[in-house]
Amino acid sequence: MKKARYKITAVPLKNSTVKIYASPKIAVALHELVKDMNLYQGVRFSEILDAVYEQGKKNGARFAFETVDTKIREAQKAIPHRLPGRPRKP
Questions:
Q1: Of 47, 59, 52, 60, whose CA–CA distance to 22 is shortest?
Q2: Are residues 43 and 72 in the same domain?
């Protein structure tokens, strides 16, 4: 199976450019969006990208914590633990 080759798409901003690494399909769609963008549309687009980025960070953190929690539960099940009680009489 071929891996997707990511392309760099430069999104021009007022004072600089932002490089976005994306698959070719996403890069073409992004280029079409940015091509005839005015200032208002650019601000709205940047707000959407920021929201998507923040949600991606939250989802990634949630996935990491869920993975750690499941591995901890597996380790606890693997350790035979009995509550301490009165010792047996010899």
A1: 52
A2: yes
Gyration radius of the chain over CA positions = 25
Residue 86 placed within a domain = no
pTM: 0.51
Residue 65 is assigned to a structural domain of this protein: yes
Q: Which residues of the chain have pLDDT under 50?
A: none
Half-sphere exposure of 44 (CA within 13 A, CB side): 7
Neighbours of 9 (CB within 10 A): 19
Asked if residue 20 belongs to a domain, the reply is yes
Looking at the structure of the chain, the number of domains it has is 2
pLDDT of residue 67: 92
pLDDT at residue number 76: 85
Any domain includes 3:
yes
CA atoms within 13 A on the CB side of 59: 6
The CA distance from 68 to 20, in Å, is 30
